[in-house]
Amino acid sequence: MALWGGRFTQEADVRFKNFNDSLVFDYRMAIQDIEGSMGWAKAIAEVGIITNEELVQLEQALKELLDEVSKDPESIKNAGHEDIHSYVEASLINKVGDLGKKLHTGRSRNDQVATDLKLWCKAQVKVLLGSINNLENTLVNVADQYFDTVMPGYTHLQRAQPVTFGHWAMAYCEMFHRDYKRLQNALELMDTCPLGSAALAGTAYPINRDKLAQDLGFKTATRNSLDSVSDRDHVLELLSCASISMVHLSRMAEDLIIYNSGEAAFVELSDKVTSGSSLMPQKKNPDALELIRGKSGRVFGSLTGMLTTLKALPLAYNKDMQEDKEGLFDALDTWHDCLDMAALVFEGIIIRKERVLAAAKGGYSNATELADYLVSKGIPFREAHHIVGETVVYAIKEGKPLEDLSVAEFKKFSDKVEDDVYPILQIESILAKRCAKGGVSLEQIKSAIAFMKNELSKR
Ligand code: ARG
Prior knowledge:
- The chain has 19 helices and 6 strands.
- 61% of the residues lie in helices and 5% in strands.
- Helix 6 (109-145) packs antiparallel against helix 19 (442-457), helix 10 packs parallel to helix 12 (324-345) and helix 14 (367-376) packs across helix 15.
- It has a two-stranded antiparallel ribbon with strand order 1-2.
- The chain has helices at residues 14-20, 23-26, 30-46, 52-71, 84-96, 109-145, 165-189, 209-215, 225-230, 233-259, 287-311, 324-345, 353-361, 367-376, 381-398, 407-411, 421-424, 427-433, 442-457, and strands at 150-155, 158-164, 192-193, 220-221, 267-268, 350-351.
- It is mostly helical.
- It is elongated, with a radius of gyration of 30 Å.
- The two termini are 47 Å apart.
- The structure holds arginine (ARG).
- The site of arginine has 10 residues, from helix 6.
- Residues 22, 26, 83, 109-110, 113, 317, 319, 321-322 line the site of arginine.
């Protein structure tokens, strides 16, 4: 059953076989292995290793196998073969007999697995781009709906200055927009085909590798055979794209968990993405968000694992590299699920506008405005900052927000304060003043949303 029996006189220990075999997880590359084999069959026919009739027969059998496997890919995972390459070759031999044994001429599992995995990554990237795009669209719609819903903005988790829920949503949209571009860049960089590099030194047949690459949907062939079979940069890059994006997802989840807490009660999550407690009947827990936050850990773990596996590997192929798949598959599945779940969380979310407005008004988040007001009356900023600090201490003692102090009370700290102070302490004025690009004025928020809608419509 193994591909390499001739050199051996003893059967592999079953414990070693179980340890060594990868079919239980690399069956996920079945379609790519068959597609790669179709490309290779054509390439070896072109240099006369097989005849055109043989090529037609091989293509026919591979096509049949593709149909069978596509119906139920999981069904092959316990077929007992060493890996997906052995499985496909054995299945082919079953269908066309000795002709199936010719396919591996000039090829090695080393360039085969590198090609399969790149093909798999490319297909997966397209799915992931779709999920990021969906989340970005969701966030833009949320931002549109709540572009002027005032809420507190925080630094150090202390209320700092008012922002709007739309501005908050667009902050995350910007992050996912970068994630999308990062993934596109990764896709471009991995678009080279290793097939024809054979075991490490290149195939011994005069294959037109650039044509083969293009037949398989790659831009071009790789340039160095040693690098081709050893390169797993695309795995690292996808894991790092996933990790960075999981940081964004996890931070967004954390913000929403805080906004959903009993203390803040800024948002109410839909029943569709929350769960109850088995003991406490009143509870509605933000499990979807907590799982997004929690699952970031395993994605970072896969990245660290792969970096560590590769770091001291001598050229060229070593079996260590078989460890590239499970972490990658798990990380990309996890990332995909989290992107979709994050979008789902926004379906039916309720923003409690009065609560967020009241919170934005509390916490003296208009103190900076008072300092700027004093600056406009000729007081140097550092001095103004000090005066406002003292005024805030007084207001806290009196249990009043700044805008409820009388002019006489303000004058205890600075005689420059007059009646015209009140409008500048209002939320509307605070937002409106921040009209430079990227600020929270409603015009800026609207234009950021419009920019993003236009970007998304170009995809
Ligand atoms: N299952 C192997 C892997 O995933 C395929 C390549 C095997 N190559 C070898 N020289 N043993 O890496």
